[in-house]
Amino acid sequence: MKWVTREGAKADRVACPWLTRKCIDPQAEFQRVRKDKALEVVRREGGKSFDCPGVDYTHREN
């Protein structure tokens, strides 16, 4: 599966890919894009998004 997040290295954006590959999907592919482009890239290429406003998985609220 493809995963998309915003660019820039922060603890959660480094740990999530590691954890995903280790426990969920060893073949996972990750893309880091501009925050305002994340949803566009997910729609175009499929996959899931994390740690950006309005995405599938975030650490805010639910």
What this model shows, in words?
- With 62 residues, this protein is of the alpha/beta class.
- It has one domain.
- It is built from 2 helices and 3 strands.
- It has helices at 11-23, 38-45; strands at residues 2-6, 29-33, 48-49.
- The protein has a 3-stranded parallel β-sheet, covered by helices on one side.
- The longest helix is centred in the first third of the chain and has 13 residues, at 11-23.
- The N and C termini lie far apart (23 Å).
* Nearest-integer average pLDDT: 82
Shape: globular
Which strands sit side by side, in order, in the main sheet? Answer: 2-1-3
N-to-C series of helices and strands: EHEHE
User: Strand content of the residues, in percent?
Assistant: 15-25%
Distance between the termini: 23 Å
Summing up helix and strand content along with how strands pair, one would put the structural category as: alpha/beta
Write the SSE topology.
Layout: E1 2-6, H1 11-23, E2 29-33, H2 38-45, E3 48-49
Parallel strand pairs: 1-2, 1-3
What's this model, at a glance?
The chain has 62 residues and is α/β, with parallel strands linked by helices. The chain has helices at 11-23, 38-45; strands spanning 2-6, 29-33, 48-49.
What tags apply to this protein structure?
single chain; alpha/beta; 2 helices
